[in-house]
User: Fold 3-dehydrosphinganine reductase from Cherax quadricarinatus.
Amino acid sequence: MGWCCCITWLWSILAIGLGVALFEFFSRKKRDLKGKHVLVTGGSSGIGLSVALDVAARGASVTLVARDVDKLEKAQVEIATVISRVASGGYVQYFSGDLSGDPEKIASIVKDAEVDLGPIYMLVNCAGFARAQTFEDIPPWLVKQLMDVNYTGSFIITQEAVRSMKRQHEGVVVFTSSQAGLIGLYGFTAYSAAKAALVRLAEALHMEVKPYNITVTVCYPPDTDTPGFEEENQTKPVETKLMSETAGLLKPEEVAKKLVDDALIGSFTSTVGLEGFMLTTLCAGMGPITDAFSFLTQVFLFGIFRAVSAFYLWSFNKIVDKEYRKRQACKKSE
Ligand SMILES: NC(=O)c1ccc[n+]([C@@H]2O[C@H](COP(=O)([O-])OP(=O)(O)OC[C@H]3O[C@@H](n4cnc5c(N)ncnc54)[C@H](OP(=O)(O)O)[C@@H]3O)[C@@H](O)[C@H]2O)c1
Ligand SMILES: *[C@@H]1O[C@H](CO)[C@@H](O)[C@H](O)[C@H]1NC(C)=O
Ligand SMILES: *[C@@H]1O[C@H](CO)[C@@H](O)[C@H](O)[C@H]1NC(C)=O
Ligand SMILES: *[C@@H]1O[C@H](CO)[C@@H](O)[C@H](O)[C@H]1NC(C)=O
Assistant:
């Protein structure tokens, strides 16, 4: 009798929890971008360009920030075409600047961008690059540059944008991390560390800006078919390739659409695909709780996903072992 009662209670609590979660999941309000100003760093290529095209189609005005003026100009034309198609009355402008450069210059880009298009409503940090190499092969200047662009660059431009968002009492901030920012993967000693640093930055910032009606989202793209990915592919160790292949190669448009949707809902994490869902659930840790649905999946699926992770880790270690043996055999035959 006692047991039966206990189980009934447990199930009732579970059912109520799930009900609340589903209700919240379907009633979450997506904010609107019509007439708003969106700044995209790295908006001239890859995921950043796809994000810029996506927000332009939703009626936003867009500022692009990257280094290469030729690429920026081409992107501007592409985005202007979308803006005139949707007839939103929006505008697209660009600023050329190095996010790993002078902090004052980076901050002044935000100020200049706001002169014509008004206060920034949404900031998407997409500028960045990846390099996979074995630990001892990574040149020290590259370690520093990875940190400068991928971490410090995002930090400084976000500081300036948040100052402005706090004054407006509204805003959306997005950081682009990587699935490699959630796990330390072979070949990514420098990259994983830089991308993981962004996650802690985002968690702390989330806590600070919540009262100001500003949301923070971290996007974890899997391998995505971009110019940046092609370049990264050139130096990737075979082990890294074999491991990341398991998740497939996505189109930047898919990643961008999900990123914008999740950010406008105010979800803390954004990811595409089953692997991404599993990883973000596993790595939720002390991260902010932004909706009941993901919170419940974390509470109830963590144990199972941790068990599944053992299979992935086993297969990753098998790859490392196999390539190691191959190299040893090569050495011996020389
Ligand atoms: N593609 C993937 O598989 C993948 C997976 C996980 C995470 N990510 C992350 O997603 C983001 C976008 O990647 P992507 O593949 O779309 O890259 P991408 O095609 O190479 O585009 C990178 C963009 O960032 C700009 N940029 C690079 N360094 C800069 C700097 N120092 N200052 C200002 N702008 C700079 C580039 O323009 P300029 O060169 O002209 O400056 C370009 O617009 C990156 O943070 C990347 O780490 C990508
Ligand atoms: C990270 O840094 C690398 C190397 O500087 C750069 O190629 C890449 O675009 C950066 N990624 C981000 C998101 O800043
Ligand atoms: C918060 O921001 C949204 C737009 O992002 C706005 O519609 C809403 O009125 C703001 N709420 C407060 C309390 O300022
Ligand atoms: C990456 O490089 C490998 C060869 O090492 C090639 O087979 C593969 O098609 C490349 N992938 C992309 C997306 O460039």
The first strand starts at residue 37 and ends at 41. Residues 31, 169-170, 213 surround 2-acetamido-2-deoxy-beta-D-glucopyranose (ligand 3) (CB under 6 Å). Residues 31-301 form a domain with the Rossmann fold fold (CATH 3.40.50.720).
